[in-house]
Amino acid sequence: MEAVRHLGVTEVARFEGIPPKTLLRRLERKRIILAIDPEDTRRKLIPVSVLSPAAYQAWVRAETCAALQDVKGQPQETLSGEENYKQSSLPFAAPSQSESTLLKAVPPAVPERNRTYVERWALIIGDCTNGTWQKYRGQCLEGITIQSRQDFICAQAKIHGVGISTVHQKLKLLKEVNHNPDIPANQKMAEFWRHLLPKNRPGRSGYSFFSDDKNAWMREKLLNLYLTQAKHSLKHAYGLLLAEIDAKQRAWGVEHIYQRPTLHQCRTVLKGVDSPTFVLAREGNKAFYNQCAPYISRKPPEFSDFIWCTDQKVADVRVQDAGHRLGRLTSVSFIDVTSNKWLGCCFAPVLSSDVVMRAAVDAMIRTGTKPRYVQFDLGKEFYNHRFGGGVSRIKGETLFREALGMWQRLGVEPVKAIGNNPRTKPIERWHAEHRKLDQGFITYTGKRPDDRPERLAKIEAQHYAWLAGEAENPRIPTIEEYIDEFLKWCAVTWNLETRGY
Q1: What is the reported pTM?
Q2: Which of 384, 385, 441, 475 lies deepest, with the highest CB count within 10 Å?
């Protein structure tokens, strides 16, 4: 037991920065058997080999402090508990000579936000230049066996979370400053830190500039100049702001000196303007209601059967009927906005309100439920008295009566889509995926007439030649074959996959 150092549970918990009970549970999960103190059987001992790297380094630091106190007879500062856990990874009581020199040479006007940066790099560079790596020769730090100074630098970079090339870059800068004869000896380290501290990039302090009470009016003036329907560019609005500042400066004279913001600082402030405010101010009310209105939600409700969406689409495939006549089918489909799943449809040669009603009935039969809201297009086949209700005329008489639409009878609230804005209809994305199914047929017509495939004309010519008995059958898909493939794709390929909108 003398060859291996052991510590008590309380002492190890203090170095680990956790309660003793938590430490015992952690060792029990790792199946580590603790030794019993022969002098006190109620006391368990933990070997230092099972300590974490940070706790082991804290223990070595404490041991070194105690040793130095015994040798020099001077009290040393020791830390315990959480403070000891937060110390640097090097197990030495006092900072090294190089580290002390670096810290003393730091320019006094170090911003508070750079204080942590300075302390970290003073620790890294100081221990990489004072031969500390020799004290770790043969030991393992962060999985790296220390055999040379380069190994120690790699371990330090891994401990502090910086790049190895970054450490070498700082060391090269220190070497250049020390070997520069033009810099006085007492100013070398101050010059080193002036090069090492991060510089304020243009626009980085834009929020702090305009948050000053003396400059707050400039932010409001900039927003008033930029967020207008005149649609000034940022440079033009910035020039107008500088002109306003110069006018105030001439009016006040030398009694009050106005600060002048940079273009980057103005750009930083304008980045914080939200999109609805930007669109409303520069585009107007119509653009705001079309692009940023509250009901244009990109995040659907969390529960299903809340809102359905419907629209019509002409199939991009030429099919043949029983009389071998060629044409394209029109379909009306319903999807659930929440789950983005296909619910039902109806095919017909032309679009009518009957096709829309049959598609709605098919969707409700397949799902066994009805939605709370339904979003539809502004076409007359979707928006008429049969669906929305209104005054209807009785045939053969001059009487009128109030008629209830289908959605009113079912207790479903209709929602009109915004005209000329396909982004407000989630079913448009589903139509784009549906077009991929159509591309698998030999008679795919293309998205637009200009994109019509050349082979389609040859297939149609061969079809007509086959009807005249002059060629082979090109096997153009029939209406039944296309509808079967469509239903199979919707029920198997599309609905079974997990899709979020």
Answers
A1: 0.42
A2: 441
